[in-house]
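Fill in residues.
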């Protein structure tokens, strides 16, 4: 292995490893609606773990009202991933864990973050989403 390279780096000869996350199709479907300029019915989504699963990610909330409405809908005690259409027309993603989220859930979610956010094509950055967030 070349010093300073990761296992997934092609120079290391390592095998790319999956984080094991399964993002259900509903996440990509809602994200498509958010990106559709002709559909103002939804401009944010929050995804999280499906009940009883440690790897399946599904939509747990979506709606209109921008990032402020999204922030108001964040779950307490559970990791969340999501995205919003900002007032300037840009699409931003986020990863959120509350202070009361267990360390095990925080760790698992941080490993799954990129796998979930990569499903949201056309996202051009990340915001620090938290309760009370405003643009």
């Amino acid at each position: 292995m070349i010093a300073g390279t990761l296992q997934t780096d092609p120079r290391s000869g390592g095998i790319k490893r999956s984080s094991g996350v399964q993002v259900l199709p509903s996440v990509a479907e809602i994200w498509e609606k958010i990106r559709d300029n002709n559909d103002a019915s939804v401009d944010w989504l929050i995804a999280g773990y499906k009940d009883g699963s440690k790897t399946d990610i599904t939509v747990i909330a979506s709606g209109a009202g921008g990032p402020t409405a999204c922030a108001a809908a964040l779950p307490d005690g559970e990791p969340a991933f999501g995205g919003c259409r900002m007032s300037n027309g840009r699409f931003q993603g986020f990863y959120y864990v509350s202070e009361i989220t267990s360390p095990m859930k925080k760790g698992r979610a941080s490993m799954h973050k990129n796998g979930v956010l990569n499903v949201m094509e056309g996202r051009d950055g990340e915001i620090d989403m938290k309760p009370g967030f405003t643009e």
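The first strand starts at residue 22 and ends at 23.
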